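Researcher: Structure for this, please.
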Amino acid sequence: MKKKLLLVTGAGASIDFGFPSVAKIDGLLTKYAASTCNCPCLSDPYTYLKSCIGYKHDNTSFNYEELLYLMERIENSQTECNDDVSRKLFLLSPSFCRVFLNSYRNLRSILIDKLLDYMRTRSQAWRNDPQLFNKFQKFQHFLLYSIQKDYDISFVTTNYDNILTEIFPKHNTGFDKHGVFQRARLYNDPKWNKGVYLHGSVHFNMRDPSGVNPHTIFWEKNLASNFNQNSFGRSKVYTPEGNQILSSTIIAGLDKTKQLLKEPFLQYYTLLDRLVFEADAILFIGYGFNDIHLNNVFSALTVKSKHKKKVVVIDFKNNEINPMEYAQNNKWNRAVQYTLSFDAANLRHKKGKTKYEIATSPEKLKKLKILEYAKGTHHNVALWYDGLMSACEHADRIIKHL
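Model: Predicted structure, token format:
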């Protein structure tokens, strides 16, 4: 019987196939916001709001989801924004708040809709690009022939794109052949092969707003079909505190724990805990370890289970000369250590049959095409810094740690 592997992918896993990085999405939203705003005093409302909260021209530490969340907070504040609490919360003057409420109202909904349209366009385009399709085939071979030789694979992705959909078209997503979500299909299926789109998919659609249950999400196989997600034109859901939650087919922003309280996101999140617990190995690809609600689930790796789990993290690092042990100011370094519960001081690597127990830089590890690793009580962790395509080309070195 094959062992069970859980594949977890984030934005970094799709960049090779023409999908945008977090930084590029920030640029797209800036462009969309500028074209949407009808206020003559704010030609670039997105960038202006970033400057109000301290971001200048250096976006290396900026995540667009922070700004979407800020928009939600201001949208949920008092209309005039002239009370002391609002001013202290947003560090904005009453005059700016009036401008904001006139210029930015519903901007968050519009930006999310445009982002989803863009991702759907890219999901239809990559197959027609020979270079991107060649990379896809490498990734497909890596999973279906190198990894799946020893493991059955379930996948969990925070991405909206269709890359894993194309690689695993028969995985159980909970949607039936008519596109209707049925939780029993997930919960009662004894097979391991599940497909979990934690934050939504380009295939998610909603019915016509005038129909019955207009906010129900269903699966639309044909990406060229008419999509009715249109969170801008749909009524919002309100929490007991009076906050608004968008009626959208994707989850975006920092308030994900509120947004996932609907079908199928709630069922996916519930299933995630079981998948992490039952997996014999977990392979992270391009995951940024930024989502606390997911990191808390992955932290359960430190709990004793039936087998000692093996964890491999594939990511891409620039030619950093400082080993992780000496680069604790790096946000990703801190997050991966905290989530996967290992000490960078214990990282080691092997070159051939020789074991080196000294701290090594990502730059050197990339040149050697090897992983560094740390052994724990209940799980082992190994890290590859040379990106997804390089990992596919050196699949044997990845598999050794799984």
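Researcher: Any notable elements?
Model: Residues 107-125 form the longest helix (19 residues). Residues 78-89 have pLDDT under 50 and may be disordered.
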